[in-house]
Amino acid sequence: MRRRLLSRKWLALHALLIVCLLSFSLLGKWQFTRAESVDGTIRNIAYALQWWIFAGFAIFFWWKMLRSDLAEDRGGTGSAGSSGSARAAGSAGNDGKPAAFSEGLSGRGGDVAYEPAPAVEILDESDPEDAALIAYNRYLAQLNEGHERARSG
Predict the structure, then answer these.
(1) What is the pLDDT of residues 65-82, one digit of tens each?
(2) What is the pLDDT of residues 101-119, one digit of tens each?
(3) Residue ranges making up the domain that contains 112
(4) SS3 for the chain, per residue?
(5) In a shared domain, residues 6 and 64
(6) Nearest-CA neighbor of 31 among 40, 44, 22?
(7) Global confidence as pTM
């Protein structure tokens, strides 16, 4: 983890974060002092708040990028906020993707880049949420079949 945080990329991102935080804070302070002056308006207060919100967004996105990179190091999916497992109905093809997805790419000559799903969870039709997901996947498969028939004929 320490090696990742001290890489050139992350040192540059740390420096960029510090520059952004200093700049946004100073701009917010400047707008706030303008609002307190004789010719200041409510617009200056709004701009001051806007700059401080930008600083908060900079911290938020830096944190999200950091968590994503560290998840990649640990072999995770890279999405820190995900639930952890992919849910799919139906069987998986030989390449680890759901069969319908594999068949959909076969007509394109394999020129589409994709990443295999990290895990496939078998759905239980007795569970109401899973049953709804299975029904929705069947509906999507029917729509896809109709689209393929219309495109080929």
Answers:
(1) 988 888 877 775 544 444
(2) 544 454 555 556 667 666 7
(3) 99-152
(4) CHHHHCCHHHHHHHHHHHHHHHHHHHHHHHHHHHHHCCCCCHHHHHHHHHHHHHHHHHHHHHHHHHHHHHHHHCCCCCCCCCCCCCECCCCECCCCCEHHHHHHHHCCCCCCCCCCCCCCECCCCCCHHHHHHHHHHHHHHHHHHHHHHHHHC
(5) yes
(6) 44
(7) 0.45
